[in-house]
């Protein structure tokens, strides 16, 4: 997803200054074996979170993606012509430039989770899951296919590591190495490793520049930061914890995720918990509505809610207008633009230091 940093009026105080995901129950992720980096170098083996191995003797010809994020990665890798269908399609205008036009040509198998029978009968030889629990989200579409059913249908099944395995992770996520591994892995599987390396190198260069600018800032001097997932509901906030890629994005940008002490990917808390943290900055994280006007409206609604709600209007960030209008997707879902988000956050928190 493109970096969605729109005209947030509060964030323009620069002169004075990501679809919640669902990673629970992850079964696996793709992780390319060593020595298979060159484009078209097969066989390529990938392993899931449990260590089960899947080997590709050639590039897949018909790919189905579970949602827009894995679809976007394939488009960026130049493998979009192999995608025959997707679930959770990107809305028109949510991807940048030519990616949007390409995405709109992909057949939509479901507006949400792809029904089991439709997926198994799609004719795909590879299914890429962004979130391991998508098959069992209580949507009335039946259970996700079993490993045996995927095999019978001739469909290899892999996941994006940085999101699908987040809930199982035993380590705090403070860098984008898992995202970069996803891109490298997909490049190896689809025979586009040269492009994958170019994308990963670009991410590393961007993040390295931010680290050079803000990396020397002492931990105690780094501003505290709250990711306000407005679209997940305001009754009980859903926060990003230290296993979620957003924690890495926030950390690399030189900020302190106020819920970094939570050993999970996501967690529901009470507003009293947010008040106790009293963050210096709040990201108004909304999901892309497909146009700048619709996005601006959503950001304004999120800001208005914080300013009018009795529980939040007294927060330091709210009183000082310290808001960042950055979309949910490029913050919480694996993608090239996680690095762009690192840069955008750092530009706001460290004006003049990050170019």
Description:
The chain has 355 residues and is of the alpha/beta class. It has 2 domains: 9-20 and 217-349, Rossmann fold (3-Layer(aba) Sandwich), CATH 3.40.50; 44-199, Nitrogenase molybdenum iron protein domain (Rossmann fold, 3-Layer(aba) Sandwich), CATH 3.40.50. Helix content is 34%, strand content 12%. It has 13 helices and 12 strands. Helix 6 runs antiparallel to helix 7. Mean pLDDT is 86; it is low at 1-7, 9-31, 33-37 and 134-142.
How many domain regions?
Answer: 2
Do you know the CATH topology of the largest domain? Rossmann fold
- The percent of residues in helical segments reads 25-40%
Main-sheet strand order equals 4-3-5-6
CATH superfamily of the largest domain: Nitrogenase molybdenum iron protein domain
* The CATH class of the largest domain: Alpha Beta
Number of helices: 13
Taking all Cα atoms into account, the compactness measure Rg is: 20 Å
Name the poorly predicted regions: 1-7, 9-31, 33-37, 134-142
Distance between the termini: 22 Å
């Amino acid at each position: 997803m493109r970096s969605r940093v729109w005209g947030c009026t509060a964030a323009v105080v620069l002169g004075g200054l990501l679809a919640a995901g669902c990673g629970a129950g992850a079964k696996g992720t793709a992780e390319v074996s060593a020595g298979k980096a060159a484009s078209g170098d097969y066989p390529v083996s990938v392993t899931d979170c449990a260590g089960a191995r899947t080997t590709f003797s050639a590039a897949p010809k018909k790919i189905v993606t579970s949602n827009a994020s894995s679809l976007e990665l394939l488009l960026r890798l130049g493998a979009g012509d192999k995608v025959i269908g997707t679930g959770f399609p990107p809305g028109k205008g949510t991807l940048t430039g030519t990616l949007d036009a390409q995405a709109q040509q992909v057949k939509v198998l479901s507006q949400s989770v792809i029904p089991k029978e439709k997926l198994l009968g799609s004719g795909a030889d590879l299914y890429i899951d962004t979130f391991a629990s998508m098959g069992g989200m209580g949507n009335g579409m039946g259970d996700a296919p079993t490993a045996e059913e995927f095999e019978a249908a001739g469909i290899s099944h892999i996941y994006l590591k940085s999101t699908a395995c987040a809930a199982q992770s035993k380590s705090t996520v403070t860098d984008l190495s898992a995202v970069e591994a996803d891109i490298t892995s997909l490049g190896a599987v689809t025979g586009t490793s040269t492009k994958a390396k170019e994308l990963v190198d670009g991410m590393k260069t961007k993040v390295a520049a931010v680290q050079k600018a803000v990396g020397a800032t002492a931990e105690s001097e780094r501003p505290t930061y709250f990711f306000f997932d407005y679209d997940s509901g305001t009754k009980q906030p859903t926060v990003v914890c230290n296993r979620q890629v957003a924690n890495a994005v926030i950390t690399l940008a030189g900020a302190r995720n106020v819920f970094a002490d939570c050993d999970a990917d996501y967690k529901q808390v009470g507003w009293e918990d947010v008040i106790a943290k009293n963050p210096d900055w709040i990201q108004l994280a909304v999901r892309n509505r497909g146009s700048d006007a619709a996005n601006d409206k959503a950001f304004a609604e999120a800001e208005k809610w914080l300013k009018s709600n009795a529980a939040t209007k007294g927060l330091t960030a709210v009183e000082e207008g310290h808001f960042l209008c950055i979309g949910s997707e490029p913050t919480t879902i694996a993608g090239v633009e996680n690095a762009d988000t690192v840069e955008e956050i750092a530009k706001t928190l460290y004006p003049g230091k990050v170019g």
